[in-house]
Specification:
Structural class: alpha+beta
Number of helices: 6
Number of strands: 4
Strand order of the largest sheet: 3-2-1-4
Strand content: 5-15%
Distance between the termini: 30 Å
Helix content: 40-55%
């Protein structure tokens, strides 16, 4: 991801956070910017946020992972610290074709945090480790 585009995306998320805290909605100009920067996955990510499909799993050691329920009902464990999601769209669009910055699941995690609507769940370090290893059910 080009450094200037990362800066633009980060600033856009900060603007959304600031505006949402005051108005409890995202104005049209920021929605247009979101669509311009992130492409078609922006609308899909907003839909996931509206469905409250994002949960932050936090352990006592301070580690976090985000579980996002996709449109198919499948859960994806996203790592926003390194911008990774195990979904097929991330592998194909972001990694293989380099056509997008993020998939809808990671963007939904960022947006839900910016809007303050992320579901929170505390788990043990062992549970989080199992979740990250793919051996635990959501």
């Amino acid at each position: 991801m080009a450094p200037f585009l990362t800066t633009v995306a980060e600033q856009l998320l900060k603007d959304i956070q600031k505006t949402y805290q005051v108005k409890s909605q995202i104005p049209d100009d920021l929605l247009i910017a979101l669509s311009f920067v992130f492409g078609p996955c922006a609308l899909q990510a907003l839909d996931l946020v509206d469905q409250r499909a994002v949960t932050c799993m936090s352990s006592p050691s301070g580690r976090n992972a985000f579980q996002v329920m996709g449109g198919s009902g499948r859960f994806y464990t996203c790592f926003i610290s390194c911008h990774y999601c195990p979904c097929p769209a991330f592998a194909y669009t972001v990694l293989r074709r380099n056509e997008g910055l993020l998939c809808k699941h990671i963007l939904a995690a960022y947006l839900s945090q910016a809007m303050g609507v992320t579901q929170q769940e505390s788990v043990s370090d062992q549970q989080l480790s199992m979740l990250l290893g793919g051996t635990a059910a959501p």
